[in-house]
Design a protein that fits this description.
8 helices, mainly alpha
């Protein structure tokens, strides 16, 4: 139940992001930068060390875990590019709400993986689960924000647009539940964490940071990134005491 509770917080975070998209866009660039820093800190200070340690107990080397990280990065990178080419082949999607809703479906799938990542990390160690959950909760605010921005395309929201936001919010709970019910072994969980590390790296460097700097080219975004990294570093340090 504790694991599912963490995914519920991720769901609430998504709903908050949707609210911000409608009412408070002024400081979104700082949130994006901070979220990127949190994901980077979670990856290098906790997620990868936990994956390497757990996999090492089953005879896997650190190189093999890092290869999974690269694999995870490529999955999400190529998946995003494929989706972009399918829904917007000419590179100019304009204000087409249908295109935006198709893209929002990708975000819902992405959020399902978020929940699975929280559950996998928490089943390996509660500390890892908390660190991953913090990273995803911060990052899911941007998921909710992006869901609303995609389906409205800058216009006034329609009733069906909120259905996409609710589906995106419920997706982490579904992903976490599937991992818990499947009763995966520690070896399998370590593999999930390796792939999740690649997912975090892509989300931070290929999604959040470019969007943040596009919204505000100033130094404030960089400061927010550093702040997110420091926060996770301190959290992991104190959790280990």
């Amino acid at each position: 139940m504790k694991i599912i509770l963490l995914t519920v917080f991720a769901a609430l975070s998504t709903l908050i992001g949707g609210w911000l998209a409608l009412h408070a866009r002024r400081h979104v660039h700082l949130l994006l930068g901070f979220g990127a820093g949190v994901l980077l800190g979670a990856t290098f200070f906790d997620l990868l060390p936990e994956a390497i340690e757990t996999a090492g107990q089953r005879g896997w080397t650190s190189r093999e875990v890092l290869a999974l990280t690269v694999f995870g990065f490529l999955i999400f990178y190529l998946g995003q590019r494929f989706l972009a080419l399918q829904v917007c082949p000419d590179g100019d999607c304009g204000a087409n709400r249908h295109v935006g809703r198709m893209s929002a479906v990708g975000l819902i799938a992405h959020s399902t993986i978020d929940g699975a990542s929280i559950a996998a990390a928490a089943l390996i160690s509660w500390r890892a689960g908390l660190v991953v959950a913090v990273g995803i909760i911060v990052h899911d605010i941007t998921d909710g924000l992006n869901t609303i921005l995609l389906v409205t395309r800058g216009g006034s929201p329609e009733k069906k647009d909120f259905a996409f936001l609710v589906a995106d919010a419920l997706a982490p709970i579904l992903g976490g539940t599937l991992v818990v019910v499947s009763a995966m072994s520690s070896h399998q969980l370590a593999l999930v964490l390796g792939v999740t590390s690649g997912f975090f790296l892509f989300t931070a460097t290929g999604d959040l940071l470019p969007d943040a700097h596009r919204r505000s080219p100033g130094f404030s975004v960089s400061a927010a990134v550093v702040g997110g990294i420091i926060l996770i570093g301190l959290a992991v340090r104190f959790a280990a005491i």
